[in-house]
Queue: 2 jobs
Job 1
Amino acid sequence: MRKLLLAGNWKMNKNVAESVELAQTLVEKLKGITDKDILICPTFTALSEVSKVIKGTNIALGAQNMYFEKNGAFTGEISPDMLKSAGCSHVILGHSERRQIFNETDEMVNKKALLALEEGLIPVVCIGETLEQREAGEALGVVETQLRGSLNNIVGDDILKVIVAYEPVWAIGTGKTATPVEAEEVHAYIRKIFSDIFGSKNAEIIRILYGGSVKPDNSAELMGQKDIDGALIGGAALKAEAFEQIIKVAK
Ligand code: PGA
């Protein structure tokens, strides 16, 4: 049985004080939940302070991005070691906003994933098609290309540490959610491709999250799908009550 993972992506929201306040509220509201994994991903500047708040609780800490070099002259970038020293265990990679606004390619996401694994961080690798691609009937092909490209050259047991997040771009922040059937179709396909590359045993273990307008009222049905192993939540993760509800109704 794959344990559900509910992850909050706070994006470029909340300063340090606001992040600490939200984290403190979540610690209270979510304590005692052990049958699901919980992850929050605040912005870089809040990581250290939030990590102090959630230390020793059932909430893990992730960053929203990192660079694919260990250190050096890369002004404005953040290394995996810096994230670890700020208390992170996870890092979101290749979010569609990074791909679309900052031109990240599968090759870059792959370099980041390889370095994250080498440095002991768990990568949450995001893939997903645009509305145009879906309407052109290309959704599965796009997702397959992104999956293969982003996970290239990951060998051995490292692949079991990877978390995949399927986030149809047209469903992110739009209030439009993929129906459970639409989402499950792509999730099952991702698991099949994963099985082709890394073997069926590994494909049964790996977790595939759904992301895109997950809310308290659609969480249960989405999370109830066979190949959906959790969610990456944006907007609703900024409100403690909504995040709590999404987690509590997920089965
Ligand atoms: P959303 O964002 O829940 O606000 O649609 C999801 C994401 O981008 O991770």
Note: The chain has a mean pLDDT of 97.
Job 2
Amino acid sequence: MSSMTFAHHVAAATKASGGMPPPLEPPDLEFCFGERTFGPVEMRKRLPKQVFQSMVAAMEKGAAWDSSVADIVAQAMKEWALEHGATHFAHWFQPLTGATAAKHDSFLSPSIGGKIVTKLSGADLIQGEPDASSFPGGGLRATHEARGYTAWDPTSPAFLVKNRNGCYLAIPTAFVSWTGEALDHKTPLLRSIDTLDRQARRVLKLFGINVERVYSTVGTEQEYFLIDEEYFYRRPDLVNCGRTLIGAKPPKGQQLDDHYFGDIEERMMAFMLAAEKELYLLGIPAKTRHNEVAPGQYEIAPVFEDSNRATDHQHLIMRTLARAARQYGLVCLLHEKPFAGINGSGKHNNWSVSTDTGLNLLDPGPTPHSNPLFMFFCTAVIRSVFKHQDLLRISVASAANDHRLGANEAPPAIMSVFLGEQLSNIYEQLKDGPATSSMRGSKMFLGVTGLPTLPKHAGDRNRTSPFAFTGNKFEFRAVGSSQSVSFPNVVLNVAMAESLDVMGQALATALGDGDPADESVLSDAVTRVVREVMDEARPILFEGDNYDEAWHQEAERRGLLNLRTTVDALERMTDRKNIDIFEYYDVLSEREFLARQEVWLEQYEMNIDIEAETLDAIARTQVMPAAVAYLNALISASAGSGSHGIGIAKSEVASGIDDLQAGLAALSKAMAAHGGDTQANARHRCDHVVPAMGQVRAACDALERLVPAHLWPLPTYQDMLFVH
Ligand code: ADP
Ligand code: MG
């Protein structure tokens, strides 16, 4: 082992044993949860009763609130924040960069006599004015048109961001241009929730159910990697791109399946406890943690919340993981594919629709065939996926996620719905008429009297499906680990709103003058609508192995879309149907929608360019010199000995160097060629730059297997994945 590599290991190991921060007090869950949020608990304590009630109505039912309450809320919020040591407040928003942004203002306000007072007015709370021109706008804003506004979202609680040296108050906001066009991820999400609410309540009325609010619920399962920061800093590719651009496959990867659900190492556990404690304080219900499939890979999942809060919280989870890791000398990699040949990271987006009275509309109950409400809503989801496969694929499109989707470890780029045996069987029955039975779960005896008898579900799970029914919700699994879950949920909400609209009209027609209170009238009408929808949407159902090549052929035969790359997907955004659904349901205007296409294509292009330039630099300034040094050593050695073996080694290294040169020449050529408009540029990166990067990588990885460890300039996969 080289002295340099060994020094890394020692540094990593020392940190793991002794260099960790002092132990934290374990959190008192019932007491500390939400301590750093200005949520209902704090509001009840600090606001006059009527103001409190109007805030709760806004938070729980999306009710309009009177702007006269803003001054009172702002004052209370400020006092609370000051008591916690805050000096600044910030409108916190989600620009189209995919990250979050905030401009901080201090609470100080000069008053007469040169004294300073602290202040947060209602106006400060309601509206901010960040410069819009420095955020991606996709043509919605020109560089000189700088005005943009942030608008307070009272449905997501304000929170405190704290570190050892201070604290600020973050106020969740929507971000729009001077013309009122959405420049962010939150505005369309809120609009899509409203649209879904309207359509769902209209349908529920037909079922005789009157509620005040319907909303989508979301629970995200976040996967991530942890590596020692010692290695991170020595990898320009990780620093610049968040993923390794080269790296030979290590002898031990994940083939032994010994990491999944395995014992969590001491240092990782310390990190997790610290991160979770922070999340509890922020009112984020972190629930599950475990080792994931790949070495160095982990998962965290919170309990589900309404989709707006869940999306805000998802951002805070990513941020908290990244920060907490640094305290333990670790770096949290949120990239979709940090290591080639090793499982990538996704973010399963568990999604359902619920009423404010707590009724989960995707809860099948024990006998779904006799539950018309469930059958109606479940069919609406199936229709949504069928009709808008392209939008779902678009919603998860990124250069990073392209490495994952379809790479036999993540769902393919082809969208399909998995229902499980029980529901599949019901939809089979519906082919020929009404469904008359539901398969039941059973009991399982484990062969040992001392062990409990376990209830067995009516169907197994399928982990290869991109869109799977998992008991009382659907799980959209193609979402990337580093992305905001906002747009995927916008698409789900708006597609669902459309399905409920169309199917709701069909149901009203099918009911005619019949009385929906009569169970058989209602169930006949629902059956009719469901059968009609399924006649068209059935090809989207698939229960088999989504990784299997045979499925890809079958999917093509069925006419399902297979949008392999980000560019393939984003190009579909100009399809009329996609523009229309967003416009018709008031979620994004045509201009707003197409601006997103522009922004995402541009992001793709820029990401690929950063990767290509980083790879070029690593290959030329690190890999090539190491290979040449070794070649020189071999040349000297062969001059002194007639060894046949040295001769072979020499020619292997020499031909490796030639391959690398050839790859670099191809990459330079691809990078020099310019397309034209954004779409042509992105297409060029996808078709020419990405393959050339693959060629350079292959040459580097071949050299890594030849060049002596003491000459190899980068930490290896083995170092990064196994040395903690
Ligand atoms: P799984 O079904 O994947 O084994 P869990 O029951 O632990 O696992 O759920 C995974 C995620 O799904 C969690 O975030 C959980 O809160 C979320 N979830 C459960 N029910 C719903 C629901 N009705 N709507 C949205 N998400 C849900
Ligand atoms: Mg799951």
Note: The two ends are 17 Å apart (CA to CA).
